[in-house]
Amino acid sequence: PGEPSTQVRQLLGEGARVTGIDDVARDYDFNDLSISPTGEIFAADFANERLVSFHNGVGRIVLDELPLGGRLCCSPNGVLYVLTDEALQKFEGSRLQTVMTLESLPENLRFHSTAMFVTKDEVIYVLDRNNNRILRFNPAESFEPVVVGEVPAEHHPDLR
Q: Residue 24's pLDDT is what?
């Protein structure tokens, strides 16, 4: 939001350092990022199983028990979602609230995600890497996702 910063901060890779909480700068392994509409940056630190927030250059741990391997996505309304191969959860206050577990879905709708996008209406789109498809999940309508598109497999002739 606002004017782009003239200062570049590297949050992933060897150059990642923050001021603020010492152990954030000391032992990090940021695997996924999401930026809220207010400019707050959420980083998944799976090595330490925690969620770290950066705002105005200051980092703080906001959750100590982050599920491993999750994907982060912040909606335009500022709701942070965490999607793993087990569940879809949203971050509220200081904890994760389960929205849906994948084992509760019919077998043909279970998925393994590689990416997620959330709209202003809190409709969630998920890229299902195992089945080469895009699913839409609208918690306001149903607890089951709907297949809304297909993604060509890597060996598909259209990708050559």
A: 43
Which one, of 130, 124, 42, lies nearest residue 85 by Cα?
130
Residue of 126, 120, 122 whose CA lies nearest to 146: 126
Name the helix (H) or strand (E) containing 22.
Answer: helix 22-26
Interacting residues of 118 by C-beta distance below 8 A, sequence separation 6+: 73, 74, 75, 76, 79, 81, 124, 125
Contacts of residue 77, Cβ cutoff 8 Å, sequence gap at least 6: 37, 120, 122
Q: Tokens 């809304």, residue?
A: 148
pTM of the model as a whole: 0.73
Using pLDDT thresholds of 50, 70 and 90, give the confidence band for residue 75.
very high
